[in-house]
């Protein structure tokens, strides 16, 4: 069973609240963005998010999410979970020519040396083209001022 796909809204809300509380207590920082493990969520997750008002950004939400800033996938850096491919990314990047925010998801704990080297090449390509890196909260703040 997935943590945020299947359990009722109260259970999911408890998981979200507990995680946010522990993070704040141990770091002094506040979570503002959420992305579920394996991007697995359901309508109960939407209700659970309502119980944690500081979570204002959702990465890869259900299609019917309307209350929070949504950050969706633009391009993939991995051809399979944990396997980065510079060649595939560069091809897709050239074909799509993104002009605004890109959210790139990677599973760096699963990368081998080749995946890490391809990630470094992707980062260099994006830097060369003038892209900057922002946290989800920084992006939301920057775009809300427009």
What is the mean pLDDT? 91
- Low confidence ranges: none
Q: How large a portion of the residues is in β-strands, by DSSP E?
A: 5-15%
Strands side by side in the biggest sheet: 1-2-3
Number of DSSP helical runs: 5
Radius of gyration, whole Å: 17 Å
Largest sheet: 3 strands, parallel
Q: Helix coverage percent of residues?
A: 40-55%
Order of helices and strands: HEHEEEEHHH
The end-to-end distance, rounded to whole angstroms, is 40 Å
Structural class comes to mainly alpha
Précis, in short:
The protein is mainly α and 146 residues long. It contains 5 helices and 5 strands, in the order H-E-H-E-E-E-E-H-H-H. The protein has 2 domains: 9-71, no CATH class; 78-144, no CATH class.
Descriptive report:
- Strand 4 and strand 5 (83-84) form a beta hairpin.
- This protein is mainly alpha-helical.
- The chain has two domains: 9-71, no CATH class; 78-144, no CATH class.
- It is globular, with a radius of gyration of 17 Å.
- The strands form two sheets. It has a three-stranded parallel β-sheet, covered by helices on one side. A two-stranded antiparallel ribbon has the order 4-5.
- Helices cover 43% and strands 9% of the residues.
Question: Which characteristics define this entry?
Answer:
globular; three-stranded parallel β-sheet; mainly alpha; 146 residues; 2 domains
List the helices and strands and how they pair.
Layout: H1 9-27, E1 33-34, H2 43-50, E2 57-59, E3 69-71, E4 78-80, E5 83-84, H3 86-96, H4 113-128, H5 136-144
Parallel strand pairs: 1-2, 2-3
Antiparallel strand pairs: 4-5
Helix pairs in contact: 1-2, 3-4
């Amino acid at each position: 069973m997935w943590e945020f796909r299947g359990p009722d809204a109260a259970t999911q809300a408890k998981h979200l609240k507990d995680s946010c509380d522990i993070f704040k207590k141990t770091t002094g920082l506040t979570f503002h963005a959420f992305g579920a493990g394996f991007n697995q969520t359901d309508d109960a997750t939407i209700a659970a998010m309502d119980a944690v008002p500081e979570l204002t950004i959702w990465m890869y939400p259900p299609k019917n999410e309307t209350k929070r800033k949504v950050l969706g996938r633009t391009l993939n850096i991995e051809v399979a979970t944990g396997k980065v491919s510079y060649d595939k990314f560069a091809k897709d990047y050239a074909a799509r020519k993104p002009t605004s925010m890109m959210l790139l998801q990677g599973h760096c704990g699963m990368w081998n040396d080749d995946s890490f080297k391809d990630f470094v090449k992707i980062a260099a390509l994006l830097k060369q083209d003038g892209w900057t890196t922002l946290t989800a909260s920084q992006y939301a703040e920057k775009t809300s001022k427009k």
